[in-house]
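User: I'm curious what two different proteins look like when written out as structure tokens. Can you demonstrate?

Assistant: Sure. I'll show them one after the other, since each token string lines up with its own sequence. Here's the first protein:
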Amino acid sequence: MNQNNEPNMPIRVMLLISLYVVVSVIAIWRASTFQAFDLITLGVIPALIGLVKRAPWTKVLLLSYAGLQTLGFAAITTTAMIAYQITPDDVKLVFQGYNIPLFPLWLLLLSLVVFQWWVGLSIATRDYLIEK
């Protein structure tokens, strides 16, 4: 009989790992294509490795990474709101000829940051990272 005493990975951690895999691929593509290196995109790689390996430092790194994203999100949102008050016609996001609506993008980014905080602060994640 092969009994596995390790606790199962919580679904929220699986979803976070899936999100981090996608973001890691995009970060590596962005770094190799545009030679753009920054902490917000490439910082996901150590967090992903820590979650997969269940390293003891992962919780601190996960909360630090979510905090860094929260600060960046708040700064960009504040800047966009101020710019919109000055010249509303100039505040738009165009990527490869496509006009991206800002409010749905803002909601998506906010939900991703809130999701990371929820997973990082949950008891299930703490138990998963502590028990080996």
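Here's a second, unrelated protein for contrast:
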Amino acid sequence: MGRLPAAWQQSDMTRAFAETALAPLGGPEHAHLLTTLRVFLEHGGSATARALGLRRNTVAARLRQVRERLGVPLDDPGNRLALQMARRAMSTP
């Protein structure tokens, strides 16, 4: 089951998309936003705040910043899938 996502994550096209899509969250000054996005994509909802050990309001503020920087709504399942694939592509060698 995991072979298809793994192949997508390792493709040059996915890596190029990832670099472009996640560029607004690059740099050490935005690492907390990328971490919040990662945990949100993995856990979603209020589980994100628990997983990060943060208040829901803090997570909501960070997710607003992520949405503004990326320019995509995070409530769209297609956007979440694309961002999750991009994030995973950036973390694979």
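A detail about the second structure: The chain is about 70% helix and 0% strand.
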